[in-house]
Amino acid sequence: MRFVIIGAGRVGLRTARVLREEGHDIVLVELDRDRVKRAREADFDVVEGDGSREEVLVEAGIEAVDALGALTADLNVNFAACMIGKHFGCRTVLRVDEDYREEVYQKYAKEVDEIVYPERLGAIGAKNALLGGSIRAIADIAQHLQVILVTVTEGSPMNGYSIEEVALPANARILAFGKKDEPMGIPLSDDSLETGDRVAVLADFDVLDDVRQLLVGDEVATAAGGA
């Protein structure tokens, strides 16, 4: 696939590297000359210019790409680039900082295909490292939804029960299940939960503590809930 990424800073350049490693074609758009030089030294195709201007994106090949990632630290530049991308019929991804979260959901979310929060993703990783234990946040799916990976403990209230018997809160769903040391897959109703098994759960933030309590137990739930 072909992608245009606006911004060759920390987020944009790292994203470009990952996509290139997977065999995709990348064009970076960057205004800062030092970043342009650094990206070119890393063998990226770079268009030097303002990513919020249509003529710059046309030079970057916006007419023939599959998706545009507006990944600068400037929300206005990112949104303008996404609107140009939508005009040319490509998928659009808008980067925002955590401070803009509520505002973006109210004003911009319907105008783009995806919104990403690099700071939030970094915070998830840091929280997981600090907490350790049997619960790991995987990703924020929407404004109030998160996917967590839970490892069943010996003291779990659901240890020994089947998937069908797990009564999660109304705003939570089991997405995947894996026996200890085995790959995860689609959960089956008669899969039994045993110590070391892993369960991926999609849950509203409001019921995360209830999910932890049910699948892990009191001790770990209390520690995780303070994060």
From TrEMBL:
PROSITE patterns: RCK_C, RCK_N. InterPro entries: K_uptake_TrkA, NAD(P)-bd_dom_sf, RCK_C, RCK_C_sf, RCK_N, Trk_Ktr_HKT_K-transport. It holds the Pfam family TrkA_N. One of its GO terms (biological process) is potassium ion transport. SUPFAM superfamilies: NAD(P)-binding Rossmann-fold domains, TrkA C-terminal domain-like. Residues 1-122 form the RCK N-terminal domain. Keywords: Ion channel, Ion transport, NAD, Potassium, Potassium transport, Transport. Residues 135-217 form the RCK C-terminal domain. Part of a potassium transport system. This is Potassium channel family protein. It comes from Haloferax chudinovii.
